């Protein structure tokens, strides 16, 4: 009886947490298919009289000077900036993590210094970043956002990959060196395949950290050439008459790409864990 009780309590807890997580998403979907009349009715109507999917068609249709143009261009810019920040952080972060984990020397204080930059508030960094980008003519471009987002993503990537590399036995590096491999061959043919799961996890979290960033994008962009989704959705609420169903629709659509990327990357993580096992 005690085992049955704890199992029921476990399932009930899981259902409660799932409901708490999914309730805002479900309400956002209901808002996206409701009319303003349904949302402002008193008493409140939890379900709309008729479901209206016109706002989905509006945001997914590319027409000049329309909400669809703003949303789709912002989606493109967000993907370029977030993917670019994740890739740049992996390219720079993996050698740094390998150095912290494998090469001799007292580098622990330097690692903590790298992590401390992750704690700095964005408002303390925006002025020197803005002056530097303005001097090089890089304002209002997705590439500049990707570089700036590295200040958020790179410390996390270095910390995560360093922890993963610390779990790999150093004997595999020594075995590769005995077989005649140099440092870069060891990293490419031995360490990288064994770190596939950690690299996938770092790429996923880096993408998510950069995907919904708002402050840097708000300050460093001013038109559709580089405006991201978080700023574009905020602009939808800036008019005199706020279209709440349109904002809810944009929020749901902007959340779909990270969900799909996480789903497919999760499968690659499982393959990376299976391929990264050490036999011996």
TrEMBL record:
Name the UniProt record assigns to this protein: Carbohydrate ABC transporter permease
């Amino acid at each position: 009886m005690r085992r049955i009780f704890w199992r029921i309590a476990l399932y009930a807890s899981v259902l409660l947490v799932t409901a708490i997580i999914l309730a805002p998403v479900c309400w956002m979907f209901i808002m996206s298919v409701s009319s303003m009349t349904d949302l402002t009715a008193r008493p409140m109507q939890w379900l709309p009289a008729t479901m209206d999917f016109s706002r989905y068609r509006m945001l997914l249709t590319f027409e000049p000077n329309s909400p669809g143009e703003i949303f789709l261009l912002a989606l493109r810019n967000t993907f370029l900036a977030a993917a670019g920040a994740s890739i740049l952080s992996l390219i720079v972060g993996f050698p740094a993590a390998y150095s912290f984990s494998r090469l001799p020397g007292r580098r622990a204080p330097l690692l903590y210094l790298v992590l401390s930059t992750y704690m700095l508030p964005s408002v303390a960094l925006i002025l020197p970043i803005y002056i530097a980008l303005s001097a090089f003519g890089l304002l209002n471009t997705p590439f500049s956002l990707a570089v700036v987002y590295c200040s958020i993503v790179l410390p996390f990537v270095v910390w995560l990959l360093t922890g993963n590399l610390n779990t790999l036995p150093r004997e595999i590096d020594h075995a590769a060196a005995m077989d005649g491999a140099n440092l870069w061959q060891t990293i490419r043919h031995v360490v990288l395949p064994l770190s596939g799961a950690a690299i996938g996890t770092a790429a996923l979290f880096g993408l998510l950290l950069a995907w919904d960033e708002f402050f840097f994008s708000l300050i460093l962009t001013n038109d559709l050439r580089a405006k991201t989704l978080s700023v574009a959705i905020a602009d939808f609420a800036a008019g005199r008459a706020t279209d709440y169903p349109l904002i809810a629709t944009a929020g749901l659509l902007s959340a779909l790409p990270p969900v799909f990327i996480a789903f497919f990357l999760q499968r690659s993580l499982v393959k990376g864990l299976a391929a990264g096992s050490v036999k011996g």
